[in-house]
Amino acid sequence: MEELILQEELRKARQELLLLYEIGNLIRKTLLLDEVIYLILSAVTSHEGLGYNRAILFVVDETGAFLEGRMGIGPTHPEASPEVWKMIEENKITLEGLLDVYHKAGCKIDVELNRLVSMIRIPIEKNYGVLPESVIYDKPMCIPKAGSKHALSDINLIDLGIEEFIVVPLRGKNVVLGALLVDNIATKKALTDADVRRIMMLANHAGLALENAKTYSDVVTTAHQDSLTKLWNHGHFQHILEDGIKDATIRGTPLSLIIFDVDDFKHYNDTYGHQAGDKALEMVSTISKTVMRRMDNLARYGGEEFVAILPGTTKPEAVKLAERLRTVIEKESAADGIPKKITVSLGVSSYPEDAEDKDKLIYCADGALYEAKRAGKNRVRLYKKPATHKR
Asked: DSSP string spanning 288-315?
């Protein structure tokens, strides 16, 4: 009898090792960061993988001071069924086919969960709960239901109804890159030390895959960045806008564009020199990053001209954001090293209200910017279609 039990345990161990080997191979199939993250989460939650109800991945930000919610797979509440798993179960898709699911879903997985995940930003300090503690101490933790609210500390996580959960660090070769949170929100199946070991074994593969993808992403990002401002360059802006309009068309959502430039920049350059001009452009880009939301894309359009792509944003919303940007730049440009206060003029256009293709949308925003200049500069103008006169 005892021998039979040992044989059964050995069989299960072999199955688990084989599964982890397959998962390790799976998450090395791509170097695209979001695809790697999606595959890690899918391996944790898929019935073909580890089979937990929900998984959320957090990454350490560029400053090393915050953990940011990057992506999640699973329901937002116990009764919900994750969209991605509906597709997988209906088509009987194996681990090998998970990337196809991601692409067929337009890279939009469990939208409501990820809306909440994207708002999570936790300081990496000991008194901010177990997520930062897992990163600081590089150790996994299993948190019981009784202590979950206190251990989470973030209201967006608490709103997701997380009770008993496991958190594990995601380690690269020499540094912790993030953390993975796993729970069983739907089944309420208890989590044990054995679950911690399983998830940690996957996390060892995942951390290295994440590091490789991040390195590749950094190289690609650098190639698409403007060297002075570190914003997207003109070419990549065109690509992002085209994709943004396609996505807005499919989803039936608005998209807005803000084009803005520094007022009287030639005179500023001629008066204070090109180094001061470069410093002014860097300052405008830095301030713009603080004003724009995480979902927005900022680019240097050329010279002293900048552009912001605002997905899911109506024209009235974009005008408010543009006005805030104008105000903040005017207020904060009296910083050290800036010899004269900087102001900007801004033009706003929206899809599909003003135009339904990329070039026309840019043309409309550029026209609104021209109107702002003509009206006296340091102001926002929105594109208005010319009035049609009936005979």
From this structure: HHHHS-TT-EEEEEETTEEEEEEET--H
